[in-house]
Design a protein that fits this description.
142 residues, mainly alpha, 0% strand
Length: 142
């Protein structure tokens, strides 16, 4: 449950700002949205993260902030997983302790960022990433 709002705890300048934008003491205490009064009528309060959650509302904002504008197409994770596996298999698949099934399982649990890193990595990069000998390491190939 949200904490109750205390009008008296606000600074005089902030109270004046809210009042200029039509937020009364009673409205504030009852939980009215202060987003517009805070200057976020056309922009999200938390940048691209919030804009991506509601692209219809923030279409103009997204167009300004992203090159090419609008929505970023979602990555095809299955394609990234295939490419990451092929990268690991091709670069370190000949190593004696390489376990193909373990690598498949770990690639399937990688984040998009980890998949992209794996695709771009050289053989030395992959070995350095795998150097941390833990089963939870997504690049561990044993």
């Amino acid at each position: 449950m949200a904490r109750p709002r205390n009008w008296d705890a606000l600074s005089p300048a902030y109270r004046a700002r809210l009042q200029r934008n039509g937020i009364t003491r009673q409205a504030y205490v009852s939980g009215a949205s202060v987003k517009d009064a805070r200057g976020h009528k056309a922009t999200p309060e938390h940048g691209l993260r919030d804009a991506a959650k509601n692209p219809q509302r923030y279409q103009e904002y997204l167009h300004k902030k992203r090159p090419g504008g609008g929505q970023r197409p979602p990555a095809n994770l299955e394609d990234l997983k295939d490419r990451a596996f092929a990268s690991m298999d091709g670069k370190i698949g000949s190593y004696f302790k390489y376990n193909r099934n373990a690598v498949i399982a770990r690639v399937n649990n990688m984040s998009e960022r980890q998949l992209r890193l794996t695709i771009a990595a050289t053989e030395d990069d992959l070995l350095a990433l795998a150097a941390i000998r833990r089963k939870s390491n997504p690049w561990h190939y044993h």
